[in-house]
Amino acid sequence: MRMTVFLVTSLMLVACGRAERFETAPTQYQATRNVVAVAGPISQACRASGRSGSKPQICNCIQAAANRTLTAPQQARAAAFYQNLQEAQDVRTSQRLRDEQFWEAYRTYGEHAEALCAL
User: In Å, what is the CA distance from 26 to each residue of 21, 41, 56, 88, 114?
Assistant: First the structure.
């Protein structure tokens, strides 16, 4: 179970490092996936994370997935995970209903981002 949480959370955080396929044809990618340049808390956190490969194309794609699956408050909460991975673990293991509901939405977001951005 811990490994699953780690993988889901890591997927979201390392996604910034998986931009190599976008370097060759970002326009084609954006056209086929209907991803336009977007700004938001996830995109900003992705870019500010300092990870190698935190390219605008992948950060924008992840933000587009967030826009389709998370509310604005959920996006702000998820963006905080870029600064503090332990917070993600704490939310995932929490027994509070609010945290459980958020984690379910976050998991859905992760699955959507993976499919949309081909992470």
Answer: 8, 22, 10, 30, 17
Q: What is the pLDDT of residues 18-47, one digit of tens each?
A: 333 333 333 333 433 454 556 899 999 998
Give the model's pLDDT for residue 13.
46
Segment 77-86, tens digit of pLDDT? 999 998 888 9
User: What size, in residues, is the chain?
Assistant: 119
DSSP class of 37 = -
Helix 97-117 and helix 56-69, axial crossing angle in degrees, nearest 10 = 130
Distance CA 119, CA 59 (A): 11
Domain ranges of the chain: 2-117
Contacts of 9 (CB under 8 A, 6+ apart): 81, 85, 88, 89, 92
